[in-house]
Amino acid sequence: MSLQPPNGRVWNGASGTIDLDRHILMTPDRVIRIGSLTKTYTAVVILRLFERGVLALDRTIDHWLPEYRQAHRITLRMLLNHSSGIPDLLGMRVMFLSATNSTMKWTEPELLDMIFDENLDFNPGTDNQYSNSNYVLLGIIAERATGKSLQSLYHDEIFFPLSLNHTYFLPSDSIPAELVTGYDRNLIPLPGWHYTEPENTAWSSCAYASGGMAATASDVLAFVDAVMNRRIITEQSYVMMTQFTKAKKPKDKYLEHFGLGLFQYRDFYDGAYGHLGLFIGSEAVAIFSTERKFVLVFLVNVSRVDNSDAIIRKYLDLIFGHNGT
Fold first, then answer.
1. Which CATH number does the domain housing residue 271 bear?
2. Domain encompassing residue 19
3. Is 115 within 8 Å of 158 (Cβ atoms)?
4. Which residue from 98, 141, 173, 312 lies 20 to 30 Å from 207 (Cα-Cα)?
5. What are the b/e assignments for 135-146, b being 16+ CB within 10 Å?
6. How many CB atoms are located within 10 Å of the residue 189 CB?
7. Looking at residues 233-247, what average pLDDT do you find?
8. What is the mean pLDDT of residues 226-232?
9. Alpha-carbon distance 140 to 214, whole Å?
10. Which tens digit of pLDDT belongs to each residue from 86-114?
């Protein structure tokens, strides 16, 4: 976990162990898969390209994806705020194949075929519904628009400028020695514990630009702080990121208010902005508030932590109960 209270002094800490046998202590320098927190990084890449005139947010995506029959109805902005109507590709087929072949790598054609083969869930722009497919497409569009790999874009646009030396795009980067094994017994519909070893490429390659990163909590905090303080994007981009639309029938309290690569938590987490990441073998939360001037990052190498909300609430109470000192 990493915390930055209003006084700006960052605290990094860890508890528990990295293994189920409880032999090796977790330490702040360990790297954990951050799942859908990746989406905020992807949104920042898209917005930086927008700032330079490479991409136009309200242009339909048929310019970059002419092979997609629905592309003329969908804009980049709709992908960013989950209003495209495109269903989530991370269904049972992906789950089963990835769970049974951990070293496979999903290819771009395979991901696109799964996305393009499905009908829209609703007319684009009429509702909001969370879908990993939106951000997979954003990553592919960024590559096609620039002629650069997504790995290079993340490094050039974010990792290098912010000196994020412990953040990795796992489908492409070398596996860091500090990457820990993840554990799941809730998301895969099979009994027992399921391990996501460091060399596992199935989960990161199917999630791709929607969830393929891993990082230390301190690196995530540095990135979120840069977004919050407009050091990696312009004021215009930040305003667009934090213009939220409400889903008509949200699936849960986390998936109700959508910005561009961000959620807004109006009824909990003190109305903070941020994103969650829940994937096979990890859970992640990154939240921040420009008004209350805090950043909190919570990473754990097990999926579906029952009391994560209570843990985060405890730390927020601790921060503000002591006036950030």
1. 3.40.710.10
2. 2-321
3. no
4. 312
5. bbbbbbbbbebb
6. 9
7. 97
8. 98
9. 19
10. 999 988 889 889 989 999 999 999 999 99
Residue tagged 């495209």 (tokens): 84
- Return d(Cα 211, Cα 38) in angstroms, integer: 5
Residues of the chain with pLDDT > 70: what percent? 99
C-alpha 251: how far from chain center: 18
Which of 116, 39, 31, 52 minimizes the C-alpha distance to 80? 39
By three-state DSSP, how is residue 297 classified? strand
Which class for 106: exposed (0-12), middle (13-18), buried (19 or more C-beta within 10 A)? buried
Question: Which backbone phi and psi does 245 adopt, to 5 degrees?
Answer: -115, 150
List pLDDT tens digits, range 39-79: 999 999 999 999 999 999 999 999 999 999 999 999 999 99
> Is residue 268 over pLDDT 90?
no
Note the pLDDT tens digit of each residue in 107-134: 999 999 999 999 999 999 999 999 999 9
**Share in percent of the chain as helix, strand, coil (round to 5):** 35, 15, 50
Cβ-based burial of 153 (10 A; exposed 0-12, middle 13-18, buried ≥19): buried
For every residue of 238-282, DSSP letters joined together read HHHHT--EE-SS-SSTTSSEE-SS-EE-SSSGGG-EEEEEEETTE
